[in-house]
Write a structure and sequence with these properties.
Helix content is 49%, strand content 14%. It has 148 residues and is of the alpha+beta class.
Length: 148
């Protein structure tokens, strides 16, 4: 590992190796907002919007990350790691300035209400919950028939 990179990685503790992030579909209705809300009900998940694109970030450190913040499999590291540049390093760039960041289901719900409109959100939620209740009742009925 080059000295400059090695020093930087030791200073930051390998922030880039402590999570992974990928793009998700941007929610545009109650159902897709509910999918994202489900993500946020899990530990160590955040969702952010950058340039209109939505991303999920999962805080889960790399198995190869050593205690000193350096890579334990540097010579055989994956291509995505080899392509990573200090130009967009978490340690050197600071705040990303996302358009929106969500860490709780409540934050996302407030955003969904603002985006969809309070009445439209409430109507869509009621419709979706009623549909889910009907499906659950149908499943329960089938189970009861099997038991009988």
């Amino acid at each position: 590992m080059p000295d400059r990179v090695s020093l930087m990685c030791r200073e930051c503790g390998g922030k880039c190796c402590r999570y992974f992030c990928f793009q998700i579909d941007a929610p545009d209705d109650f159902s897709t907002f509910e999918d994202v809300r489900w993500f946020l009900l899990h530990e160590d998940i955040t969702v952010h919007v950058e340039d209109g694109d939505w991303y999920i970030s999962i805080a889960n450190p790399c198995k190869a990350l050593r205690a000193d913040g350096r890579c334990g499999s540097y010579e055989t590291r994956p291509l995505i790691c080899r392509k990573y540049s200090m130009d967009n390093c978490d340690h050197t760039t600071g705040d990303y300035g996302y358009e929106a960041t969500f860490t709780t289901p409540e934050e996302l719900e407030a955003y969904a209400i603002k985006t969809l409109g309070k009445k439209a959100y409430a109507k869509a939620r009621e419709k979706a919950y009623k549909k889910a209740a009907r499906k659950e009742a149908k499943r329960n009925k089938k189970r009861e028939k099997k038991r009988a």
